[in-house]
Structure formats: structure tokens, C-alpha cells
Amino acid sequence: MKYAQLIRLLVNRELTLRYKRSVIGIGWTLLNPMLTSFVLWIVFSFVFAGRLPGTQQYAPYLMAGILLITFFSQGVTISAESIASNGPVLTKIYVPPQIFPISTALAGLVNFLIGLIPLSIVCFISGQPLAWTMPLVFIVGICLSFLTAGIGLTLSILYIRYDDMRNIVNVLLMILMYFTPILYPLSVLSPRLQKIIQLNPLTSYLDVFRWAFSNNASATLSDWIFMIITSLLSISIGTLVFKKFWPRTVAML
Amino acid sequence: MAVIEVKNVNLTYRVLKNRTGSIKELFRDAIKGRVRIQNYVALHDVSFSVEQGEVVAILGKNGAGKSTLLKILAGVLPPTKGTSRVDGKIAPMIELGAGFHGEMTGAENVLFYSALMGRDVKTVKSRIPEIGEWAGVTDHMDFPLRTFSSGMVARLAFATATDERAEVLLVDEVLSVGDADFQVKSKERMHRLIKSGAAVVLVSHNMASVRELATRVIWLENGHVKMIGSPAEVVPAYEAN
């Protein structure tokens, strides 16, 4: 592909630029989810630690959730912003604009995969055995990249057209975070609320991820189907919306 | 066959009246039924073609549509109506240094900028020392761009943009940059590029350069083509205007 080299450079830049001025640089990619999870673990382990079924451990359960939601929210916000922030380039040199949100989603995938290292450490420390199904996590990562890239593509058009979209998206992401079983086990909720939470596609992604990585949840076939369908739907809708509205939107940059 | 072919190109910007582009206002105005969108015609029925070996200069006041036309040729802006076709690899020399990032080093920026322009990363990698030397920033290439002076940034951008020969050159007022010495050097390089280019479209307010370089001149006024012809015809008419 003609733009593969450019995408590689963009992903690389995305990964290194964020921590460029820091001492340990990309080491923060390893440290960040651990620290966040540690703080939340101190607070919430009192409430939820004993509530997981069987011998499942709360620490890796929590951290898997943090990794996934970080991937999603950061991926969506950064890729949605990527077109507007690269406006100066896009109005001068022709490159397919889609490569910016896509590169962001791919950088998110790399970060996510790097995050699996500290997650394994936490599994080891807390005594949660890793599962032999671990390679399947890669499928979750790919699906999540499609999901974020698709939403990012759609939002990038809206971000250019309406300035206040950013604030709305931030609030929606926060709501979504509480509607995803990151901190709490699903079983602590009432059956009615559980049904609502299960309508959230991210719940399925998270179930599959936790199950595949360390048997820290149970994933059903419908979780898999829901995950794959939403990711394909998201990337196709995003691509179509972008294609349709871009010609008129670029004139606004 | 013409290298560049522009046929009946129209470009209409949709400008939001009392523009804030917020959803709140959109709701309010939609409810009140107020029309907010105003069309601004930047180019109106522009047609021309550029043959192999031609240097076409575009003249016009600010806001006449020159830059818009270059953007259409660069393929960045799709025309609202009409078609624009360009054969061959395009080198857009429009506000050089687009995509430069302060936190990346000089060398990284050269690589990224070149990749944006569609050049092969491997080839560029081997060219970086030479580009840095030509720009006179060899000692700084491994430092972040934010430590460069603005003149150094401009020189590096120019050196990178002009490093590879392209078939079609779109030039927006970047005939020379930097201090006096570098201006001579960059002007000379630019002129050489223009003369060796397969087809060149040039926007400039410098009539001396236009007279020297152009083989044909297009005069734009308010988005219309007012006059097309040889520099000897069009430049005096434009200057008299």
C-alpha cells in the first residue's frame, strides 16, 4: 500500500510524542495503567474484592477494564481530533485524511498490547493464572481498533463542524465508562440493570478480553458476535460518513 | 496532451452567518427558521490547461481565488462543480513546513514531511544529511525543531520541499526564503526547479519573477478569469489596473 510508510511514521510519532519530554519516555505506557489501577484498587477493593465468582482476583479484573476503557476513550478522542489538528497539512498536501484517525487507532492498539505486560505482572502478583486462550486477545484489540477508528472518523467530521461536540463527547464517554463493568462485577447489580449494561457493546469486548486473557470473566458466543458485528458496523459507517461529508467539510478547515 | 486540465471549475464555500458553529445556536436558529448558511463563490467557471513545459503564473488581488485554485490543483479541495485533472506526481510548495512538529528533531521532521509529500522513506533517509547541509542546519538536525530559529525552520522546510524533482510543481509565493545569502541560493534553486519542471503553476505578487519565469499568465478577479495570455500582454494590463 502506498501510504503504509506514512502510517508507520504516524503511529510511531503518536507513540513517542506523548512522552517526549519525560525522563522514562515510553515507559509511561507501562506505568500509567498500573498506577491508575493501583489507586482505584486501593479504593474499590474494599467494596468489590470478594464479590467476584470463584477464585477470580479483583486486581487483574480491574486493570483489564482500565486498559480497555483507556484504549477506547483515548482512541476516540484523539482520532476525532486528529483531522482538525492536522488541518494545516490536509489543506496543503494531498494525503487521504482517513490515515490520521486510523493511525491513532493503531497506536492505541500498540499501547494496549504493551499494557498486557503490566497486566500479566498484576495477574502473577495476585495469583490469577493466565489462560491459554491469551492469543485471542489480539482479536479483541483488532475489533476495538475498528470500533474506535469508526467512531473517530464520524466524530472528526462533527468536531470540525461543531465546536461544542468535544464537550458533549467527553460527557458521553464518562457516562459510558460507568455503564461498563470496569470497577464493579456485573453480579452486584440488579437483574434489570445488568440487562442495560449488557446492551453496551464495550461490556462484550471486556468480557471477551477478561476471559481470553486470564479467565477473569465468562464470555458467551453472543459476546463474540456482538463484538465482531459492532466493530465491523462502526468502521463501515465511519468510512461511509467520512467519505460523504469530507468534501464539504474540508472547505471549513 | 495537457498535463493539467481544469474545466469549468466552480468552488463555493458555505459560510455560516454569525458563525460560531455551536450546536446550541444551531438548535436555536433551526427553531426560529433563520437561514444561516451563506454561499461564498471563490471560483467561478474557471477553465484552462497547462501543457508540458509550461510555466503558468496566476495573478490577482488578495481574495481573488488564487490559493483556492492551487488547492484544487493539489487535490486537497474538491471543486463544487467542474473537473480538475493533473497528471503525474505533484509537489505542492504551499506554505512550506506543513506538518512540522516542534518536539520532533530536524531529521525526523524532514522524514515526516517528505513522507507526507509521497516520497519514499528509504530514499529520503539517505538524503537527510545532504538536506540538512544545504539548509545550513547540519549541527542541529538531531535536536527538537522547537530549538531552531524561525529562519532555520524556513530553510529546512525549503530544502526538504525542493529536494526531489516532481512532474507538476505548484508554487505559492515561496520563491525565496531566509537571510540574504540563502535568498540568493533558494531563488536560484527554485528557478532551476521551475525551469526543469514538466508543468508549473505559480502564484506570485512579484511581477519581476512572473515576467522572468512565466510562459503564460492567468489573471483572476473575484473568482473569474479576467485575462489569459502571454506575460507581455497580461502583466502590463494587470499593473495598469
- Through-space gap between termini of chain B: 34 Å
Largest sheet of chain A: none
Number of strands of chain A: 0
CATH 2nd-level architecture of chain B:
3-Layer(aba) Sandwich
Total number of helical segments of chain A? 10
Helix content of chain A: over 70%
Provide the gyration radius of chain A in Å. 19 Å
Short key terms for the protein model shown above:
heterodimer; A: 253 residues; mainly alpha; 10 helices; globular; B: 241 residues; alpha/beta; Rossmann fold; six-stranded mixed sheet; 8 helices; 38% helix
Quick gist of this model?
The complex is a heterodimer of chains A (253) and B (241). Chain A has 253 residues and is an all-alpha fold.
Explain this structure.
The complex is a heterodimer of chains A (253) and B (241). With 253 residues, chain A is an all-alpha fold. Chain A has one domain. Chain A is built from ten helices and no strands. Chain A has helices at residues 4-17, 27-48, 58-85, 87-90, 99-126, 137-161, 165-178, 191-199, 201-214, 221-249. The longest helix of chain A has 29 residues, at 221-249. The model of chain A has no long low-confidence stretch (mean pLDDT 91). With 241 residues, chain B is of the alpha/beta class. Chain B has a single domain (4-240), classed as 3-Layer(aba) Sandwich (Rossmann fold), CATH 3.40.50. In chain B, 38% of the residues lie in helices and 27% in strands. Chain B has eight helices and nine strands. Chain B has helices spanning 23-32, 66-74, 106-116, 121-135, 150-161, 180-196, 207-213, 231-240, and strands at 4-16, 37-50, 54-59, 81-86, 90-94, 168-172, 199-203, 216-221, 224-229. In chain B, strand 6, helix 6 (180-196) and strand 7 (199-203) form a beta-alpha-beta unit. Chain B starts with a strand and ends with a helix. At the A-B interface, helix 1 and helix 4 of A face strand 1, helix 1, strand 5 and helix 3 of B.
